[in-house]
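Notes on consecutive records. When two proteins share a document, each keeps its own sequence and its own token line. Never mix them. Below: protein one.
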Amino acid sequence: MLTNLRIFAMSHQTIPSVYINNICCYKIRASLKRLKPHVPLGRNCSSLPGLIGNDIKSLHSIINPPIAKIRNIGIMAHIDAGKTTTTERILYYSGYTRSLGDVDDGDTVTDFMAQERERGITIQSAAVTFDWKGYRVNLIDTPGHVDFTLEVERCLRVLDGAVAVFDASAGVEAQTLTVWRQADKHNIPRICFLNKMDKTGASFKYAVESIREKLKAKPLLLQLPIGEAKTFKGVVDVVMKEKLLWNCNSNDGKDFERKPLLEMNDPELLKETTEARNALIEQVADLDDEFADLVLEEFSENFDLLPAEKLQTAIHRVTLAQTAVPVLCGSALKNKGIQPLLDAVTMYLPSPEERNYEFLERISRLLLPFADQHVEIPSLTAGNIALTVGLKHTATGDTIVSSKSSALAAARRAEREGEKKHRQNNEAERLLLAGVEIPEPVFFCTIEPPSLSKQPDLEHALKCLQREDPSLKVRLDPDSGQVDTLDRTLGDKRHLVTVEVEARPIETSSVMPVIEFEYAESINEGLLKVSQEAIENGIHSACLQGPLLGSPIQDVAITLHSLTIHPGTSTTMISACVSRCVQKALKKADKQVLEPLMNLEVTVARDYLSPVLADLAQRRGNIQEIQTRQDNKVVIGFVPLAEIMGYSTVLRTLTSGSATFALELSTYQAMNPQDQNTLLNRRSGLT
């Protein structure tokens, strides 16, 4: 069902009102019969946003909620921190599921793939849409496993805010660092949710300190836990000076009470909360000049008189400026703390109009997402996230516009605005969303269908995979699946080709294979004109499989010195003859195996630097420099790809899971003779 879907965000900033009217006005009068919920039977879900049963509650509320009331957020975290469980509780309390799903039972809404339910992890991102207290929330649950980092990367590009979920017993973990850096890259405002406060070993203080020390963020404590581990029963709202207690007899966490803290009932808790609130006010005042002026002018004598609304507004500004992150806590599994988290999402994270996305998009057919369920809508306003169906030539990272002319006009308009504002960055360059940066592949495998009848199915599946995952590259090897006839006589026609070629090495800095073609002056121009394509096809074919390991040939120049073609000879024969001739030339030449050399960047705490360097030395690593990044060390260098297999597991073991690394293909380097001989002997079965 999800084979041909794409997620799109609509920009508020750059679409003029006239343009929006052209998109939407005539569609708003569309028959409500078009709004058919695409819901499979047997799902344990309530009505979708704006739906009561199969009827539309409000066409305006489902299609065009006020932009200020929209929140586009993502849930991100280290694996097993509780992202999907938190998402399940959010959906339940917002009213769009009738029962609580469980990851272990394999019945969650957003982990709907069979592989996800079997393994109990999130593999692909899932989008859901729901309402909370008058706000429209578009939520994307992202994977936490290191192998699916690209899924997080492509989702963050269209989000306005994010909820970072932490295991309160572990604090900041390895993948937390990775997704946090990705959010930094895309300037995503965040709030933190310390999950699993009921877990043995849970520590609010430790988790907050790890955010401060490892992420170098400034946590704003908006809540305090009431108890920890087995004694956890609720939270304190620091801003409002209230306590929230969940009914221990409630099975679903819907029943909880909010009470003001009073001296007579909770003297110690009130004292702790007052101190925390005063510290919060001082912290926000240090970060926001407008709020600081307010506090100094009117409330410097008594912080208790400061209205909660003023403090909440200042926290919202600080969150958008990304100078600090609000921190809340709870236990998703035990159904505690999720409703206040939803309130914080609507209160502190930005609406689309508070974010600056400068791109245009227009889609003909639209669906509102609810994991693997969708409801068709006739139109969509700026600031929303939706799915589109039927785009056969788009891929992840594309930006969709109504036409080339409108995109060019918008680019020219952005250029003029950039000149007026004297900005350093060219507005036109930021008109379109930057594509996801995908390094060149370095792992290769060969696949073939079980029979020729399955070849079209395989090709279709690979095309779909490539569109969904741009890191996958597919190349058809022309030497497999094709036959070249070498008979020189077919019927009464004689096919005769005589060629003389020379192969020599060339120097190049390109990572991609370089094959140069050269032709001697003695070659007849007329003959070359009609046969050049066949000749170059033959050379390419020969260079795809080298004589040593069957790997592609790189950095070679092929010179054609002589060419004789009998009249009537087919181009297939020409290609075959040239290919065989080049292969023979390559076999006679001196050859060298090249291996991929990777750019490596390891971010590691100072305490673990020595074992990481020692391990890289054993892997033939070449360290270029070691930088200091806050309290961490960043090791930059090169390492052969063959030596980096399984490095993720080794690095986690060496650094207790605290280090992260990034790899990218740098170039290909020649193996030394000893390593090359060892490799060739191993391939031939001699060792």
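Protein two starts on the next line and is unrelated to protein one.
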Amino acid sequence: RLTMDPFNSAQDVHRCDLCETAIVHSYCDFCHVNLCMSCIGKHITDGYDKHKIVPFQERRSTLIYPKCGTHPHKTCELQCKNCNDSFVCSSCTASEQHMGHIFVDVSTVYKAKKDNIEKDTEEIVKTISPTYEEIASDLENQLANLDGGYEKITTAMSKQGEQWHREIDIVVNKMKTEISEIKVKHRDLLQKHLDEIKQIQALIKQTLLAIEEIKKSTEVSPTIEYSSKIREFSKLPPKIEVSLPTFIPKPTDHEKLYSLFGQITPFISTATKNKVLSLNKPNTSPRELLDEPELLVTIQTGYEKLCNVTCQNEDRIWASGNMNNIKCFNFKGSLLQTIQTISGIFPSDITVDYDEYLLYSDWSTWTVYKVKNGKTEELIRLQGWKPINLCIASNGDLLVTMFSDDGTQSKVVRYSGSTEKQTIQFDDEGKPLYSGNGKIKYISENRNHDICVADCGAGAVVVVNQDRKLRWRYTGHPSVTKNKPFKPFGITTDSQSRILTSDSDNHCIHFLHQNGQFLRYIDNCDLGDPFGLCVDNNDNLFVCELYKGNVKKIKYLK
């Protein structure tokens, strides 16, 4: 209770919560109650042991440990690392159940969590929340200026219409209707993104309120159970910049009134690149296939055998082959950087994470490495399994194909950082999804979150959903000219959720629908032994030519 001291009205004075008159002297750190000297005895009459009386200046300094479920009269001041960080008391540590286990002080974990909460609070308040405010403000400004922009367009249409005969009025009204419909879609798009931002802002405020409650509380369980949302909130949505359509007048021609009166271009929605690359997604609007794919660029890498390629950003790729290094090129073919592998052996595969750091797998050391700021560090080290091929999932997880040391088993493992989250190895009947051998198995996650593996040993593309359920297998397409057995090597997916996989022996790329139907071949551009594949954010295809050592950039969509 906080009251005004009649003898010193310039400052507030804390009062006893029991008698509400005397000035506070002590504090019960268990019940969170202010106490004067006279009321302490009254407060602890129901059992002294459960109360914790401390000087008022030291309030909220005592940790409230959870009660032990096995020994109710004891509190749990330790966590057992061998039992999923379960709370244990001193009696539990001496029990047979926890014999030989590793224990840590709850107070240590509690302090670390409190520190993380403080950091999260600062990150949300200083960075994340203001950024969302800026995005919301920008969208609101676009909405506010929407009517004025569209009014200018309709005015231009009216002026053009006045120069025509009265029969042109029909065309004018029809076009105004079109622009109004576009305006509705334009507004809906902006409002949709604004609503999404507002929803996230509400979650941020809700999180801040929850954090404040935890910060004020000394209860251990909520603090220990606290899960940071910084990673979730840090994945900023693309900044939406929707340009107005344009009206392009044309000369008068009575026979072609509608076509010559003008042209309305649809509004163009562009998303600027943000720091969190997982949200910098390619354009997903429908795009038609070119009648004949076009070769845009050929990059000579210098590898005698070129296996892997991955895009780092809009103008750089990494490539690797049968040498103990990994090379970075720009799209003009200039060598920008060379990274030496730790083991001195060629890397099994390469990929780039959302922070644009290079990752590579090395089967000879059972390890996946990350190259960060020019330094190579160990990310994942396996035991009994050799990592082969890699891809980054849409949520930032790392997917790794691997085979057992004896070469009899294969599986896919999902990692968050260095932590294993999911294993994909068997179907619902307990049968292996992938061939049991030491052959490469390139992997890619589709836009619908399907996990696609090119299993060359089985002669099949194997696709499972995110719940590890087998969706379909593709074993090739009958062809008179493609007469060698289908052995898929590289695999990638585009913005339309379609799948591309390289058929090296038949010198072509198979282009598949997300449900497994064959759509077409890409077999021109003088492709020779296509191997590793990747697609950039503009749906340009990059193809490794195994024995030529070239990376070819191919345009296949209009």
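For the record: The first strand starts at residue 2 and ends at 4.
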